[in-house]
Amino acid sequence: MGIFDLFKKKEVVFEDLDLSWMQVDMHSHLIPGIDDGSKSMEESLGLIKRLSDFGLRKIITTPHIMSEYYRNTPEIINMGLQDVRRAVKNEGIEIEIEAAAEYYMDEIFLEKVKSGEELLTFGPNHILVETGFINKPQMLLETFFQLEMAGYKPIFAHPERYQYLISDKKLLEDLVDRQISFQVNLLSLTGFYSKQVKDFAEMLLERNLVKFFGTDCHNPRYLDMLETLTRSKSYQKIKEIEILNSSL
């Protein structure tokens, strides 16, 4: 060995991404052409194949339902689901596919809950809900209350991404006290969204407040970045904590 060899940097080899511990991805946008997710069936199949190769046994894909932008209905989503299932079967991809929705919490959604309109759920009556990223909705706590009164088990999608929640410690504690289930995006732990989001996600992990993980996969770029998760200091921890994905 020459003297200069002592100063050469040792190449770091990262392990391949393994999501078999999670078993079920319960947040993604893989029905083509109905929201801001996959744009074609070809793209959907490519994403589903990659998710299967990561070790998942099941995908519950969750298209947006937003009154102003994505006016999806249970009928539209279920029709899209059947198309995806047929295509997955024809491709010989070994993975189970179901669908629910990611509901945007606004006044119109609250009225749907109060009126008893059909809503898409998964598992033991779980319903995935989200808000805008900047401002706290006026009806946030009221909507959670009405969902619970109607027999639903709400899951708050990617709370680590909401600026209003990051800056409002009291609101976070209110949600914790009400035992609202938090779903963190795996991508948040890679720094994909921002360092602030990453730090908040890590804090939720440290406090054992995370009940579900999801990929929130929209397109190939998401999975490209997801493959860097193995470099995160949280990668080993998330494989060891008790989550509920596998029960779905």
UniProtKB/TrEMBL annotation:
Q: What is catalyzed by this enzyme? A: O-phospho-L-tyrosyl-[protein] + H2O = L-tyrosyl-[protein] + phosphate
Keyword Transcription assigned: no
State a single Gene Ontology molecular function. Answer: manganese ion binding
What's one Pfam family here?
Answer: CpsB_CapC
Q: Which UniProt keywords apply?
A: Hydrolase
Kindly report, in one word, the top-level EC class recorded for this enzyme: hydrolase
Name of this protein: protein-tyrosine-phosphatase
Q: Which family does it belong to?
A: Belongs to the metallo-dependent hydrolases superfamily. CpsB/CapC family.
EC assignment: 3.1.3.48
